Amino acid sequence: MGARGAPSRRRQAGRRPRYLPTGSFPFLLLLLLLCIQLGGGQKKKENLLAEKVEQLMEWSSRRSVFRMNGDKFRKFIKAPPRNYSMIVMFTALQPQRQCSVCRLANEEYQILANSWRYSSAFCNKLFFSKVDYDEGTDIFQQLNINSAPTFMHFPPKGRPKRADTFDLQRIGFAAEQLAKWIADRTDVHIRVFRPPNYSGTIALALLVSLVGGLLYLRRNNLEFIYNKTGWAMVSLCIVFAMTSGQMWNHIRGPPYAHKNPHNGQVSYIHGSSQVQFVAESHIILVLNAAITMGMVLLNEAATSKGDVGKRRIICLVGLGLVVFFFSFLLSIFRSKYHGYPYSDLDFE
C-alpha cells in the first residue's frame, strides 16, 4: 500500500498552485478604490442636497417668498445637485427705481406663494424666491434680463428653456395666470386663495347710511325722488365709474401714471390688460361720457320736432362725437389687448 501511494504523493508534490494572474491584484485594488470614491462622492452629493433642501424649507417656513442675492442664487439655483423647482421673480422694489408695476406684481406673487405655502399639497419640490436689482445686479447681467418684473422657472435638471420665462406682457401677472403657468412647467397645481377685502362692504354700508339719512331729513319733501333726469344722471355717473375701473383703483391702489426713469417719458396708459393707471381710468371715463353724449345728440336729432337745419347740425355733431371718441377708445383697447382683432382665429 505504501509503495503504490508514493507516486500519487509525488504527483501532488509536483503540481503548481493556481494563483491569480500577475498584475490582477493592483487592478482589483484600483477598482475597489474607485467604487469607494464614487460611493463617497454620491454620499456627499446626497448630503449637500439634503442640506440645501433643509435650508430652503426653513426659509419657506418663515417667508413664503425669500430674497436671494448673488451668492445664494449661485448656491441654491445654479449649482447642482438640485431636485426641486424654483420660481424666481426678478424685480426692482427700491423706491428710487419708481417701478409701480413691480409693486403690483409683487402683491400677486405673494398671494400665489402664500396659497402654495399654506396648502395641503405643500412640499419641498417647489419654492418661491425673488431677486431685487439692487441686490443682484450681476444676476440680471448674467441672465441678460433687461426689464422688471420678470418671472422665471428653474427646473430641477438642465437649464431654463424659453417657455420657462413667463410672458408677462401678453398674459399679465395675476396670481391665477402665474399658477396656470407653473402647473404647465412643474405639474404642481396651486389653488389661489385671496385674502378677504371688506372695503366694498364698508363703502356700501356708508352709502346706504348716507341715502337713509338724506331721505330722513327730506321726509316732508320727496318730490326729487321722482325726478327722472336726476336718476338718469346718477345712473350714468355710476356706470361711467364702474366701466372705467374706479373700483379696481380703489382695491389695488395703482399710481396715477408711470414715469420712465431712463428717458423721463410719462405713460398714462399701461401696456398690460391686467393693470391700469388712475389716469387711464379717467381717460376711459371721459371717452365713455363723450360717446354717450354723442348718442344722446343723435337721439335728440331723430326725435325732436324743431328746425330741420338745426337737427341736421345736432346729428352731425353727435355722429362726430361717437365716431371720433369710439375710435380713440378702440385704439386704447388694441394697445392693451395685443393681437386684437384676433385675425388668426378661424371662424367657420
UniProtKB/TrEMBL annotation:
Q: Where are the transmembrane segments?
A: 198-217, 229-248, 282-301, 313-333
**Location(s) in or outside the cell:** Endoplasmic reticulum membrane
What is the originating organism of this protein?
Odocoileus virginianus (White-tailed deer)
Which pathway features in its UniProt record?
Protein modification; protein glycosylation
Q: Which gene encodes it?
A: TUSC3
Quaternary state and partners of this protein? Accessory component of the STT3B-containing form of the oligosaccharyltransferase (OST) complex. OST exists in two different complex forms which contain common core subunits RPN1, RPN2, OST48, OST4, DAD1 and TMEM258, either STT3A or STT3B as catalytic subunits, and form-specific accessory subunits. OST can form stable complexes with the Sec61 complex or with both the Sec61 and TRAP complexes. The association of TUSC3 or MAGT1 with the STT3B-containing complex seems to be mutually exclusvice.
The residues forming the signal peptide are 1-41
Instruction: Supply the name of the protein.
Output: Dolichyl-diphosphooligosaccharide--protein glycosyltransferase subunit TUSC3 isoform X2
List the GO molecular function terms: magnesium ion transmembrane transporter activity
Q: Name one GO cellular component term.
A: oligosaccharyltransferase complex
